[in-house]
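Entry 14. Structure prediction run on the chain below.
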Amino acid sequence: MRLERGISQDEMSVLSRVPIRSYRDIENGNNGNPQIRSLIQIAIVLGLDPRKDLAQIVPPSAWEVAERIAAPAVINKSRFKR
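Output returned:
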């Protein structure tokens, strides 16, 4: 999905505000226990509906925090392809 949108791993890290090493580990499947907040932030940047796609594993208290963190970057991502 990231590549389809023309976003590099470095750009994804900045937009989602997930450290690059953590992002790479998540994308490559090397992080068996990623932070829920990181998954939500990545989903938001990718244009997914994390409430729907991650609803079974994310507690309600994590949504507001993750959305506040990722939302400003998503608003500014218009320079990237969709």
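The chain has one domain: 3-77.
Filed with the rest of this week's runs.
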